[in-house]
Automatic annotation (TrEMBL):
This is ADP-ribosylation factor-like protein 15. Keywords: GTP-binding, Magnesium, Metal-binding, Nucleotide-binding. Belongs to the small GTPase superfamily. Arf family. The keyword Ion transport does not apply. Signal peptide: none annotated.
């Protein structure tokens, strides 16, 4: 009886802390694929995000609520509207992109790093697509 009581009366496990992150980068950089992979979802039929999406990424000791913002030209100007409340930033970069796209990504990264709502937050810069032949090394990026 005591064994049963100990099991049933334990209560739910303590809640895991949650952190709100924003995930930004140009279209095609791999933001959606990254989040799908972290959520153990199928990588098939991934479509570029138009606007934004939110995914809860569970880890053993925490949950990351990630706001993924679309990276198309006409959407990037609205990124800053979604920054409020963020506690960290993931910037995804296509390391195999053209020089022009790399320059655009650099400008967007610098803009995010200087934004008042993001400038004090931790940034993860992910050099994605390292498996492609045209990929630049992390040092080059």
């Amino acid at each position: 009886w005591q064994c049963f009581r100990a099991l049933c009366c334990k209560g739910p496990p303590p809640p895991r802390p949650e952190y709100d992150l924003v995930c930004i980068g140009l279209s095609g950089s791999g933001k959606t694929s990254l989040l799908s992979q972290l959520c153990s979802e199928s990588a098939e039929n991934i479509v570029s995000t138009t606007g934004f999406s939110i995914k809860a990424v569970p880890f053993q000791n925490a949950i990351l609520n990630v706001k993924e913002l679309g990276g198309a030209d006409n959407i990037r100007k609205y990124w800053s509207r979604y920054y409020q409340g963020s506690q960290g930033v993931i910037f995804v970069l296509d390391s195999a992109s053209s020089e022009d796209d790399l320059e655009t990504a650099r400008n967007e990264l610098h803009s995010a790093l200087q934004h008042p709502q993001l400038c004090t937050l931790p940034f993860l810069i992910l050099a994605n697509h390292q498996d492609k032949p045209a990929a630049r090394s992390v040092q080059e990026v």
